[in-house]
Amino acid sequence: MNHNRRNFIRKGVGIAAALSAGRAVAGPLVTEETLLHNRRQKELVRDAGMLMSEAYFDGFNQHKIALCRQMDVLGAVGGINPKMVGLNAINPWELEVVQAVKNAWDNEGLKLTVIEGPPALGDKTKLGLEGRDEEIANFITFMHNLQKVGIDTICYNWMPAIGWYRTDNAKRGRGGALVTAFDNDAIKDLPPTQYGVVSKEQLWKTLEYFLKAVVPEAEKAGIKLAMHPDDPQVDQIRGISRIMTTVDNFKRMLDIYPSPSNGITMCQGNFSLMGADIPTIVRDFGKRKAIHFIHFRNVRGGKFKFEETFHDEGQIDMYEAMKAYYEIGFKGAIRPDHVPTMAEDSNSFPGYSTIGTLYANGYIRGLMESVTKQKM
Predict the structure, then answer these.
(1) Which among 117, 144, 176, 233 is most buried, taking Cβ atoms within 10 Å?
(2) 270 and 250 in contact (C-beta within 8 Å)?
């Protein structure tokens, strides 16, 4: 009995000594460096390593800002508008404006990392009109000023004269929520704009001119240019052709000037309406390191007739999409896009309902946690 007791005590002392030395009883040494590495690994998988963000096209919306801080969605996406910071008479691409806007977001506790709808990129550049070289020069100035304040991504498009377009901004969706919708039959016979007929080839020429002038400067500034698909992806609206309408056309765009700075906004809804399988093209473009920014949304239909949906009810497999982003190691900004307007919320800005945004962010974070744990 005493012999057994002495052996038990001796074993207990040995175990305690091993633990105090940082060793598992029958395993390798657990050093402070290992523990720090493990903590960092856990930090890296927060939100699957991505920056959850929200769009603020209506400026400093204090209600939305407060909700996003509470949700720990701390990335901000928006424009650069001098009026936001009381600098009405100054060009938006100048450093004073860019710095003031960045500082204002910092003061709100949010990180502005993506500019959508950049200034100094308008119809003169996209249509090849007189004055485009000045516009491009101002755009280059804008990129370098963004670099100075720590903003690295610009989401832009190649839709002159007519941009984002819907034929119904208040269609009844699930449970009576309001969604945006498009039906090409409603607009196919509308007359041309003041620019007349603009061919696809003309737009490819102006895009090539722009990329060859701008991408080298983007490389110097460390800026990622993220081309957004045409929305909708029909061949033309009122005589203005559309070219960013297929996966192959995006590959053609990337091949005009291959560069880490020349990339895309993976707007899932639009690529799905092109007929693409989202997880497949995410992995395809991910191999090229071409995805710089994500619009995470869902849709139902095809490019000639479709409607937006809640994130959990459209035609995209959202779990598989999120898994693909995680597998390619995407670390940039991701935001919900075009959410339904829910009960008792305002539809004054269709697609950006505050309550719909809350639902979408919760859904996105749940997917992120799911794909992260699935890999553990």
Answers:
(1) 233
(2) no
